[in-house]
Each structure stands twice: as structure tokens, then as C-alpha cells.
Amino acid sequence: MTDIGAPGTSMTRREFAKATAGTTGLFALAGCTASSPTSDLTASEVDASASNTATQQVDPSADVPTTSPPQIVDLDEQDHKVTLSSVPSYHEVHPGESMGGPVDLPRVWAFQADDREPSVPGPILRTTEGNDIEVTLDNTDGGRPHTVHFHGVRKTWENDGVPTTTGITVPPGEKHTYEIPANVPGTHLYHCHYQTHRHIDMGMYGFFRVDPEGYEPADQELFMTLKEWDSDLNKQMAGMDASYSPRQRDPDVFTINGKSAPRTLHPEDGSPVIVSQGDTVRIHFANNGYMMHPMHTHNHRFEVVEKDGSPIPEAARYKEDVLNIAPAERKTIEFEADADPGIYLMHCHKVFHAMNGNSYPGGMVGAIVYEEAMDTEIFSQLMDYAGYEG
Fold this sequence. Notes:
Helix content: 10-25%
CATH superfamily of the largest domain: Cupredoxins -  blue copper proteins
CATH architecture of the largest domain: Sandwich
Radius of gyration: 21 Å
Strand content: 25-35%
Number of domains: 2
Number of helices: 6
Oligomer: single chain
């Protein structure tokens, strides 16, 4: 990066060097140095990038795993410990040919928890208020530096996961354990904070949920992350002929839990809200992208019961049907499944976010599906679109 100081400052490199005399090495690990488009690639990926730029004959799924849907990791059941690693993977956003598909991200850096499958979003780490958890970032097989930063909870300085201010980066070939107190109940995030603008866009993000003591789950409880992607970055990192700049980011893929419609409706690979009449439904939303996303629910009015981990008093709640979610913001909504049993959309109301390329609908579109409607012809057709054969 050109300027060392924060935006708006005029500190020169010489002034910075003078001011930080005696701290040699801290900013070498900070992840804020300038880099070429392929500086985060492994040696083999750089070679692939160089050899394939002209031909574009790249099999994006070759020699890497395909991501799986994110799983909930109950940390209370595994001694409050988890190991996370980053795994270069191929990510199928919508593998079918319907509704503007197939849509894919030819390379992502997926988080993997312990011996589970790598996923984008990363695994949902869940624990109970009052527990201290240990998160080991295992980068022994990695090809680039990483860190893990947890939003929301209060922790010691050295466990903040920000290389610029802590001096701690986990380089390839090493491990590092973070001690994270579960001292703020609510829904939070975690993500890599090394070259943040790139590493989040490569898929290194996930939910961190701290249930308050005595927490009572709803009849249906779901976690949904919203994310927009400029697939040129993912193509570039796969060694394909693509040009990407974070300053000229142009999102063309829009996802809920890493999937675009109609794959969002797939009962196993997607995240449809399947309800029975009278169910209480609780959805934890998070925006892991860099754009605002106003989510609209058809035929159901909800209340926002939690924001960024803080419960909202009942006196301050009101019924609404559009939820605007800013980058990194978390909001939890509740509603009763009391509509005429059917299939109702839940989608971003920036309508071009509800598209796959030039095809509408697609993208950031999900649905509230009543069980009573699952034996209808229209639901069967939607399942065909989604590629579900169950």
C-alpha cells in the first residue's frame, strides 16, 4: 500500500519509520504490504496462472475439494475447542442449468473445522455464554498467511486476530491458538483479517453464536449469511484469465449461505425456511459482504429481536417486512408461520441482486415453504430447478 498512515493522514514512510523505531518486524507481519494479483497464490497456483492465462483451459475443480454446506459445530460438546484450517476449494453456487446457471466460484479459500468438510460460509461455531473457547488456526498446509478475528466478544489484545495491531500473523507451515471468551451472548462473526479485502472475498468468514444461559430455541431456527461476489477475483486465483481490483469491484454473484437461487431452495444444499403452520421461526442474519442488502419477506411480518448480539426490548420492537443489513451487521428476526400455507419468497429487494447474470429470478432469493405445500406441482417444479432429486 502506498501510504502507511490511516486514510486522510500525511505520514510519510520516513516519519513512520522514525515513529516506530524499535518495533522491527511488527508491520512485516501486518498484511498491509502491496501485492500483485497473484501474491497470495501458492507456487503451484502461480505456475498455473502463468501457463493458463493465455489458454484459459483450466479445470477449476481439479485437485481441490468441492465445498459442502456449512455445519454447526457445537463447541460445548467438544471441550470448547476447535481447529480451523483454510482449504483451497471449488465452490458450486448453483450447479444446474436452470435460471441462468450454472454459477460457480472456481476458487475459494474455505474454512474447515477439525475433520469436517470445507465450507463457504465457514462452519457455524456455537457455544454457551460463560465458556472460554480455544480456536486453533492450523496453517501447516497453507500457502499464504492468515488470521482469525472474532466480532462482538471482548477478548485480550493479542487475541484480536488483527496482524497490524497485534503483530501476530499465522504464516504457512505454522499454527496459532486464539483464546476467545464467550462473554457477549448473541450472534457474531469471524473472518480472516490478513489482506481482509481479499480473504473475505475468497470465502474466509463464518458465524460465531453465543447462546445466553437458559436459551430456548425456536421451532425453526436458521443462520443465513448474505454475500455478494466479484467472481473475477475467484477466477484470477484459479489461474484463469481475469483482471480484478478491489477498488473497481463489480459483484456479479449474489448468495444466501453461499448459494444462489434456485439452489437456495435445495433442502440439503440450500437453506429454505421449511415450516409447519403455527411454528415460531427465528433467523439469524449476517451480512458478510461489502454492500447493503434489504431482505424482504413475502406475506410474513417479523420483529427484529436482536442486533449485533444485543437483545431488543419488546417495547422497542415493531412489525416490519424489510430488513436492511449493513456490512458486518447481524440481526435476528422472529415471526410466526401463520400465513395461508404456500411458498413465499424471501429476497434482497435490490432486485438486480436477485439475478444470476442477466437471468431473473436468481441470486439472493430464498423462500418460506410450508410443509403443506411440498406435495404440490409448483414445489416439484422448483425442486427440479434446484436440482433436488430426493
